[in-house]
Amino acid sequence: MTNYQDYLDEKIHQLRIVSQAQWDYLKYSHLCEWLEDNFHNDIEGQYYATKILLHTIYYSKKDIERLLNFGLNDKIYGEIIKSELIENKNIYLSTSEAEAKVYKLKQSSFFVPLLDSNKPSESGNSVIGDIVHKLNISQKQVAFHWDITEDLLKEYRLLIFVDDCVGSGTQLKNFWNSDKTNKIKAVCKKYDIKIYYLVLIGYDKSLKLLTYNQNLNDIKIVICDVLTDKNRVFSDESVVWDSSCNEKEMAIQYFERIKKEKGVNFLGFKKLDFAVILHDRLPNWSLPIFWKEMTGWKCLLRRKTT
């Protein structure tokens, strides 16, 4: 049987190193406070929570900027240029020519946050802010979807909806079938404007379902970093737990008790269970034990939902 105390004595130092070296918003002291507030004198809970924290996927501000650059320059602009070269039977392009083509494509792109309300806290707004301030996109190339007109959009070649995460894909499907979006799609069809959905991180199974969804044929989904069931905390493929002693099952039983006693679920939206943090925000399909706040339970990080 696992000696919880020996593990904690060893790994708490590793947690300090990981958080100080890689996390730029949550500090080691925040993690310790969260463990103490919610698992005080509960060594089994501290053990499971520490394991989850050590396997949490954290994206710093630099990581987010890197993913945006990769998504735009490699997975969108790079693929367009590559297709044009193949079509023209040209396999050579100098660095200066490639940079000029990327610049031209960037100037002909219009960016829109994918939103389902007009709340400033929605994650699409954060990504748009990074695109403007970190990737030097002009504010003239950005607007909310409800402000888009035919005269505004017809000058561009690419329309790129942006968001930070796609978990179940529900938000995209609802957004894509709204009346306002249908009007935008009609304008894009009229002027042969290609439509993209650029997302920082996403779940591979949802990506496959969205890709084969007939209602989404007119949009190209681009995910910069793809997560799998191995990254889920309580999946059969999870890399968090020791498989030799049914540790995952014991952890589930423990968090079932937490759910019953404190009202904090251990599964997020659509029963997803990723331990994912994007700098200072959390998707709703990340573990609720990170973001729920109620009597008897302190959150690690509040979700920006208001």
Q: Main β-sheet: number of strands, strand sense, barrel status?
A: 4 strands, parallel
The tally of structural domains comes to 2
SSE class: alpha/beta
Tell me, what is the CATH class of the largest domain? Alpha Beta
CATH topology annotation of the largest domain: Rossmann fold
Shape: elongated
Q: List SSEs in N-to-C order.
A: HHHEHHEHHEHHEHEHEH
Helix content: 40-55%
Question: What is the CATH architecture descriptor of the largest domain?
Answer: 3-Layer(aba) Sandwich
Q: Give the averaged pLDDT, no decimals.
A: 90
The counted number of beta strands is 6
Q: Count of DSSP helices?
A: 12
| Largest sheet, spatial ordering of strands | 2-3-4-5
Task: Please give the structural blueprint.
Layout: H1 4-22, H2 28-39, H3 43-54, E1 57-59, H4 61-87, H5 95-107, E2 109-113, H6 123-134, H7 150-153, E3 158-166, H8 170-176, H9 179-190, E4 194-203, H10 204-211, E5 220-227, H11 247-262, E6 276-278, H12 288-291
Parallel strand pairs: 1-6, 2-3, 3-4, 4-5
Helix pairs in contact: 1-3, 2-3, 4-5
